[in-house]
What we know:
About 35% of the residues lie in helices and about 30% in strands. The chain is of the alpha+beta class. The strands form five sheets. An eight-stranded antiparallel sheet has the order 1-2-6-7-10-15-16-17. Strand 6 (about 170-175) and strand 7 form a beta hairpin. The two termini are about 30 Å apart. About 45% of the residues are buried. Magnesium ion binds near residues 149, 215, 260 and 261. The site of adenosine monophosphate has 18 residues, from helix 7.
Amino acid sequence: xxxxETGTAMGTVVEITVADASERKARYAIGKAMAELRxxxxxxxxxxxxxxxxxxxxxxxxxxxxxxxxxxxxxxxSVAISEASSGSFDVTxxxxxxxxxxxxxxxxxxxxxxxxxxxxxxxKNLVLDQKTGSVGFAVPGMGIDLGAIAKGLAVDRAVExxxxxxxxxxIVDVGGDVRVIGARxxxxxWRIGVLHPRRSGTxxxxxxxxxxxxxxxxxxxxxxxxxxxxxxxxxxxxxxxPARGCQSVTVLAHTAAExxxxxxxxxxxxxxxGLAFLRARRGVRGLIVDAEGVLxxxxxxxxxxxxx
Length: 308
Ligand code: AMP
Ligand code: MG
């Protein structure tokens, strides 16, 4: 039987599907996974004043802030993705995110304001002390935002809880960042749909997946239109502006954290460099929809197995 529960966490919609003969075991697994999502949210949300991320953002310019190992590790992994993507992925993008304020304002900040904020963005000014597990800022006014990787990480952790509960077949979906284990009963895989970046509510493609994670970054998730131009939440840290090369990027990887981070990185890199970046990573495949709506696949085999 399939058991499915929905909720909210990480600022988005969560859906957990478990296939198991025992309803009791399925519900227990889902409950454990939901609790894990809330726990990760509480330590990694920049909106929660008591989170480790908020502590870093409040005090990181004054002193190095000791944080939980999993928070240190995700920041450490983020820096590695920044290095691999020439800084296109950058968790220190928070001052720009605040300036653009996609949650509230619908105005384009003037170039003077952007220029003022840009020196506060840059992963190279993060101070990471592995020995004490602490994080600080070399420049005042810096801040971190794990929004481009934490959903994926939360999916991975929730999957661990489901596996530990003895379930073999499940889907965890946190706002479109998905990881599947096993298969749908009677089938060899789970079918996972990816939204069309321009036809809202319509699927662009579907994939038949087993033991794989998939994440999508899109310019349709949080945006506003001003004077006919779309301004969205995925920012190019070099320009201080929304990245312009893509409508969406979908990445398949072993873990949802890697898929999530790589989708954002490739989005900012744009179709050409983004494809090269994805192809260079072992176990990673992807689909980039460029600004004109043209599809670019990392490998032909992936295109062949997708359902358009
Ligand atoms: P995603 O939907 O995974 O692509 O993540 C987008 C979110 O990550 C945004 O809402 C911001 O909070 C943050 N973000 C925006 N631009 C970047 C960037 N270049 N690198 C890392 N995080 C970013
Ligand atoms: Mg992401």
